[in-house]
Write a structure and sequence with these properties.
The complex is a heterodimer of chains A (about 210) and B (about 375). Chain A is built from seven helices and seven strands. Chain A has about 210 residues and is an alpha/beta fold. Chain A has a single domain, classed as 3-Layer(aba) Sandwich (Rossmann fold). In chain A, β5, α5 and β6 form a beta-alpha-beta unit. The termini of chain A are far apart. By secondary structure, chain B is α/β, with parallel strands linked by helices. Chain B has one domain: Alpha-Beta Barrel (TIM Barrel). In chain B, β2, α2 and β3 form a beta-alpha-beta unit. Chain B starts with a strand and ends in a 19-residue tail after the last helix. The interface between A and B is medium-sized, with 17 and 34 residues.
Chain lengths: ~210, ~375
């Protein structure tokens, strides 16, 4: 039996072009794709580069509505079966651009979403920002964040990165396996449309 | 079709001079705009309701009562009346009184308000925004239709043997619109009661407005008020006009760039592309406004935002002259020619319909549709 088609969305808040954040995001996506393929599913992968939406994100905050391009990016995340969210660590936390995006995604949009969090930084001293900043953010959003998060310091891209068990490559593989399992275990998301199927008014009145 | 203006009542410094008007001046500007609306042949003036600076209109029925005394034809309305933080008992009485004083020239638009602290300032909790809109309106609806009300809810003290006075003029409650930018629950509420639905149509893209109105129309039919295309729809609009469109853009840009709502955000050009805002020639405004019909269907009320963002009164009055002389007469003619006969006009009080008939104004019989909407049991 063929597994149902899945969509995996990768949100990268890297600023450089190319950025190490995007590099990590792509490695994670490829690893998740491999694990899903092993389970018989070929996911559609879409990358949202937040740099491309930086102006529109600010405008959304000020006007209250997204541009069509930003709306498409938000919709991709809301309709995904799984999410990989990667931010550079700035000043002990996710970057402002990263937070801006998740501030404008609707409140319950990420509920129960299988999510892998990852981050990049200059040195391993920043790695716990994943646990004290990103993980609580996604807990607030009710996302189903997998246990393993992935931090890549500059040095991880050197020879140390591919060596031992605790290496970046090994960690990417472990986190990707967890996300692929969570995605595969999940019923594909139903299309969301509050306009198609409104709650009858009597029910709204009663539910107060 | 009804055309009019609505006023937020903001005191915003004119960005080209830095000058801000006083509260006293701002209130007089709103009155001047309302009187001008009647003078230039518009049908409706609607005031906002706010309870925090830099806004002045906190007391809508006081202001509308004053305007009622100085006008003869103008319909007086609100944009919006805070159904969440006002006591529905007081709304019932205040607007019934206004109806009597204005000889029926009154309707109102319910809104939830978007200023968080107003809720606690009025003893409410913003987390109850939607439940307050439902419960308060359900009570208001009864207070205007039942002479003696026994009522118990969750968010207001109970009533036993209460009669709201005065009773609505001739027993006909004011027509009610429900305004919401983004909550499908409010479109559902408007449809349930067979009331009007108003979308401000300024702050959000047209495809969103379309979905909200479509939902309202579909549910109106579901609740047995008639075919979807007979539902009562109103839209806002944001326009600024000069003979040459480039002059309009040049003159309006500083006001856009510094407006409390859009300032510092997208460019005027991007905003015009993404929303129904139209800054240009009168003909461009005519074309764009006629285009609203293509995404919401035949509709009954078009309100334009008039005085805001620090525009000088002289400019606002010039804009209203352009509306009255060059834009609205064309829109009336064009919309009327496009509208099928079975699509009703917005309900008005029978006294308003009678007065119009006396003046020899041509209105379709549907224009005096019974304002008391049947509510399904």
């Amino acid at each position: 039996m063929t597994a149902p088609s899945r969509s995996l969305v990768v949100v990268s808040a890297g600023l450089g072009q190319p950025s190490s954040t995007r590099l990590l995001a792509d490695r994670l996506a490829a690893a998740v794709e491999r694990h899903l393929a092993d389970a018989g599913s070929a996911p559609r992968i879409e990358v949202v580069e937040l740099r491309d939406h930086a102006q529109d994100l600010t405008n959304h905050l000020l006007t209250g509505f997204p541009s069509p391009k930003l709306q498409a990016a938000i919709d991709a995340v809301l309709d995904a079966d799984g999410l990989i969210a990667v931010s550079p660590i700035f000043s002990a936390s996710y970057s402002g651009l990263f937070k801006l995006f998740f501030d404008v995604v609707e409140r319950d949009g990420l509920a129960e979403m299988p999510t892998l969090i990852a981050a990049t930084g200059g040195s391993a001293r920043h790695s716990l920002a994943l646990e004290h900043a990103l993980r609580p953010l996604f807990a607030y959003l009710n996302a189903a964040t997998v246990a393993t998060s992935v931090f890549a310091a500059a040095e991880d891209w050197g020879s140390q990165g591919v060596a031992a068990d605790g290496s970046l490559v090994a960690r990417i593989d472990r986190a990707a396996a967890e996300l692929a399992t969570a995605i595969a275990a999940r019923t594909p998301r139903a299309p969301r449309d509050p306009f198609a199927d409104p709650v009858p008014f009597e029910d709204l009145l009663r539910s107060q | 079709m009804q055309f009019g203006v609505f006023s937020v009542g903001d005191i915003t410094p004119d960005p080209t001079t830095g000058r801000a008007v006083s509260e006293a001046e701002r209130i007089q500007i709103m009155i001047t705009v309302a009187l001008k609306a009647e003078e230039v042949g518009l049908d409706v003036f609607a005031t906002g309701e706010h309870h925090n600076p830099p806004f002045v209109p906190s007391s809508p029925t006081t202001m509308l009562g004053f305007i009622a005394a100085r006008t003869n034809r103008l319909l007086l309305s609100t944009a919006t009346t805070l159904i969440t933080t006002n006591d529905p008992v007081k709304i019932a009485e205040d607007y019934a009184m206004l109806q009597h004083l204005a000889d029926g020239r009154v309707d109102l638009m319910m809104g939830r308000g978007n200023t968080g602290p107003v809720y606690p300032w009025f003893g409410q909790d913003i987390r109850n925004g939607i439940p307050l809109a439902y419960e308060h309106y359900a009570l208001l609806h009864r207070l205007w239709r039942e002479d003696v009300v026994d009522w118990e809810g969750k968010l207001r003290t109970p009533l036993t043997g209460f009669t709201a006075v005065p009773r609505p003029l001739d027993g006909v409650p004011p027509f009610v619109w429900h305004g919401s930018i983004r909550s499908p629950e409010i479109a559902e509420q408007a449809a349930y009661y067979g009331d009007g639905f108003f979308h401000n149509n300024i702050f959000w893209p047209a495809d969103h407005v379309k979905r909200m109105v479509e939902l309202y129309r579909r549910r109106w039919e579901h609740y047995g008020h008639g075919p979807a295309d007979q539902a009562i729809v109103g839209l806002g609009g944001h326009v600024f006009m000069r003979k040459n469109s480039q002059d309009a853009i040049r003159e309006f840009r500083p006001y856009f760039d510094h407006a409390p709502v859009y300032g510092g955000g997208p460019s005027l050009e991007d905003y015009m592309e993404q929303t129904p805002m139209t800054i240009g020639s009168p003909q461009q405004v005519i074309d764009r406004t006629l285009g609203f019909r293509e995404f919401v269907g035949d509709y009954q009320r078009q309100l334009f935002i008039a005085d805001h963002a620090g525009l000088p009164l002289k400019t606002v009055l010039e804009q209203m002259d352009i509306l009255g002389e060059q834009v609205v007469p064309v829109l009336r003619r064009e919309f009327a020619a496009l509208k099928p006969a079975h699509v009703p006009e917005a309900p008005v009080h029978p006294r308003v319909a009678a007065a119009r008939a006396l003046r020899g104004e041509v209105i379709s019989p549907a224009g005096i549709a019974a304002p008391i909407a049947a509510v399904p049991a």
